[in-house]
């Protein structure tokens, strides 16, 4: 799998917020086997460079994010600062449009994606399953899309699975990463089974009773879902279809 020409093995992208302790976060990162770790620039502000250095020791790849931004200007400035601090052109573009749902603002996201792409950023845009917004983000320079499963931190899983399936069909050759709302490994499997390329998640691991174990569970679930997708799921039927053939049944009419 490749994102912006980078070869990757793990299909799990991990968030770093809300863990019980830095030590548990680091152990969870290792247990997840994630190669991409998303970090907020605001977090860098709170913990100084210590937090960045802690994550840097894991030798994972940083994906700075613009979490908490509400306008194009805020997001672009945050991305520019993140590029300096984390020394990467990668940016997870998150512009929130609604305080309760934390739904992305599609208009601002497209505008910011265009500006950032022109400045040489490789943008990972947090979006919805809307196809037209997806098209506009690609036109703006994004090479992948990150639709939400459900509102951030809600743990509701794939709230609009039919819309996400349509999106998968429509953007056949574009990497699609489910970002946000995944609450359980079973929901991650479901996303992978329908052909999504990867999953970005944070809360389900950070807020579980044992983040290290849960990171391991998600790692294995995402792998299982991907294998199932490649194996090809059986088609659903409305009626029963005997799995054992009738051939060879005892003939009791004699
Ligand atoms: C960490 C991060 O980038 C979040 O904004 C992301 O969207 C994850 O969402 P969940 O916490 O719902 O997994």
From TrEMBL:
GO molecular function: thiazole synthase activity
Pfam families: ThiG (PF05690)
Residues annotated for 1-deoxy-D-xylulose 5-phosphate binding in this entry: 153, 180-181, 202-203
Keywords: Cytoplasm, Schiff base, Thiamine biosynthesis, Transferase
UniProt catalytic activity: [ThiS sulfur-carrier protein]-C-terminal-Gly-aminoethanethioate + 2-iminoacetate + 1-deoxy-D-xylulose 5-phosphate = [ThiS sulfur-carrier protein]-C-terminal Gly-Gly + 2-[(2R,5Z)-2-carboxy-4-methylthiazol-5(2H)-ylidene]ethyl phosphate + 2 H2O + H(+)
This enzyme's EC code(s): 2.8.1.10
GO biological process, one term: thiamine diphosphate biosynthetic process
Metabolic or biological pathway, per its Swiss-Prot or TrEMBL entry: Cofactor biosynthesis; thiamine diphosphate biosynthesis
Start and end residues of each Thiazole synthase ThiG domain: 3-245
Compartmental location: Cytoplasm
Active site: 92
EC primary class: transferase
GO cellular component: cytoplasm
Function per UniProt: Catalyzes the rearrangement of 1-deoxy-D-xylulose 5-phosphate (DXP) to produce the thiazole phosphate moiety of thiamine. Sulfur is provided by the thiocarboxylate moiety of the carrier protein ThiS. In vitro, sulfur can be provided by H(2)S.
Cross-referenced HAMAP family: ThiG
Subunit-level organization: Homotetramer. Forms heterodimers with either ThiH or ThiS.
Family: Belongs to the ThiG family.
Protein name, per record: Thiazole synthase
């Amino acid at each position: 799998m490749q994102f912006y020409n980078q070869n990757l093995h793990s299909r799990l992208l991990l968030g770093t917020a809300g863990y019980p302790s830095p030590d548990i976060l680091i152990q969870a990162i290792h247990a997840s086997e994630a190669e991409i770790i998303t970090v907020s620039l605001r977090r860098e502000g709170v913990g100084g460079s210590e937090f960045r250095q802690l994550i840097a020791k894991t030798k994972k790849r940083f994906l700075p994010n613009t979490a908490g931004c509400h306008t194009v200007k805020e997001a672009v400035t945050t991305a520019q600062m993140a590029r300096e601090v984390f020394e990467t052109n990668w940016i997870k573009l998150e512009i929130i449009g609604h305080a309760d749902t934390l739904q992305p603002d599609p208009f601002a996201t497209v505008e910011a994606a265009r500006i950032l792409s022109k400045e040489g950023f490789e943008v990972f845009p947090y979006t919805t399953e809307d196809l037209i917004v997806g098209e506009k983000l690609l036109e703006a320079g994004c090479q992948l899309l990150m639709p939400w499963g459900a509102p951030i931190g809600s743990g509701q899983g794939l709230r609009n699975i039919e819309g996400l399936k349509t999106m998968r069909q429509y953007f056949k050759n574009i990497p699609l990463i489910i970002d946000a709302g995944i609450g359980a490994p079973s929901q991650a499997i479901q996303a992978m089974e329908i052909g999504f390329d990867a999953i970005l998640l944070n809360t389900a691991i950070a807020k579980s009773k044992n983040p290290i174990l849960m990171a391991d569970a998600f790692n294995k679930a995402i792998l299982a879902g991907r294998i199932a997708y490649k194996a090809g799921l059986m088609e659903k039927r409305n009626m029963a279809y005997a799995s054992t053939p009738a051939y060879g049944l005892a003939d009791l009419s004699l």
